[in-house]
Amino acid sequence: MRTERNLTRLDRVFTRLDREPERPAHIDVPKMSRHRVALLTGTLAFYLAIVWAVVTTSWLVRFDWQVMFFRPYQQWAGIHWFVDYYVVLGQRGPTAVMVAAWLAWRSWRQHTLRPMLTLGASLLLLNITVGAAKLGMGRLGPHYATTIGSNEMGLGGDIFPSGHTANAVVTWGILAYLASTPRARRWLSALSAVTALGVGLATVYLGTHWLSDVLLGWAAGLLVLLALPWCEPLIAHAEVWLFDLRDRWRARGGATAPAAPVGSPVLLQPCATQQDEAAARETVASAARSARAPVYLAPGPHTTRSERTPVTPVGSRRPPHSDRVPRGATASTARPLTGG
Question: Residue 312, SS3?
């Protein structure tokens, strides 16, 4: 009896992925709604408030120093090895390669360049905004601090905001942004938020960032994700342009291919292998003809040699017997009855 195999959770995931072997008829592109604009405005206000609190050396800077003197990497030394690995989820190189590989496969399956173009646009915005803020404020990190209690601003550093945190928010958040269903978007949003939160706290644990750096990095990454709908028209135009460029390139390659000249017909001679094959076929055919029965033998089944009557060109060699009954004849028809 044959039973159906129970599908595991991983099997169901890949089964769902295989449902989209071509470009979707409708792609749910996030719009710049009033709700999103309100979130963008609130996040921008939070961003500016963190910058103002650090520039004015407020209570936030004092709290940064308290956390630094607490030295979390010494208080919880047992998890140091785990944090060293976990913080890689915020490094731009490894995370960009992992997410780009997934989105490239998705682009190939759905025949659309939008996932890859959206990732490129988000990383470009991240590099421009966070890089400009880092270089503009020039804050030094905890390991390079010079004056206790100061904000360490304008000293040539590149630590404010936290690039690890902002990169974790954008790189993992782009998966939620490109999700195809609302449920998947909610789950991926929660997962990316927890991942970015852990990366930010990991940098504070290791002492490479101030706590205010992490807060500003969260806000910077969230601003990039919230502003992505404004880039959607440009992404759509770029996709159309790239597909048109591909079609023109293919058409140009087909047009410039040299055509074969038309001339007088040429008699093609069979090559040596063809001659050998023809000779082999002729040999097989002749062998089959020689194996056939001679034409002078009667067709059909034949009797054994013991049942055959010797035949000569002039007739049978056996003398005639009057009392012999031919085959197939009865005794009543073969011998005439005599009597008186």
Answer: strand
Say how many CA atoms lie within 13 Å of 240 toward its Cβ: 6
> What is the dihedral angle through the alpha carbons of 208, 210, 214, 220, rounded to the nearest 10 degrees?
-100
Q: Which residues have a Cβ under 8 Å from the Cβ of 316 and sit 6 or more positions away?
A: 309, 310
Contact 209, 142 (CB under 8 A): yes
Q: Which helix (H) or strand (E) holds 75?
A: helix 72-75
SS3 sequence of 147-205: CCCCCCCCCCCCCCCCHHHHHHHHHHHHHHHCCCCHHHHHHHHHHHHHHHHHHHHHHHH
pTM summary value = 0.66
In DSSP terms, which residues pair with 312 in a beta bridge? Answer: 315
Distance CA 76, CA 61 (A): 23
Per-residue pLDDT tens digits for 101-124: 999 988 888 888 899 999 999 999
Instruction: Answer yes or no: is pLDDT of 72 > 70.
Output: yes
Mark 101-120 as b/e (b = at least 16 C-beta within 10 Å).
eebeebbebbebbbbbbbbb
Residue in the block written with tokens 């058409």: 251
Instruction: In whole angstroms, give the CA distance from residue 214 to residue 220.
Output: 10
Other beta carbons within 10 angstroms of residue 213's beta carbon come to 28
- Where is 248: in which H helix or E strand? helix 232-255
Element (H, E) at 169: helix 163-177
The H-or-E segment that residue 311 falls in is: strand 311-312
Residue 316 β-bridge partners: 311
Say if CB 114 and CB 239 are below 8 A apart: yes
**Token couple for 198:** 């852990």
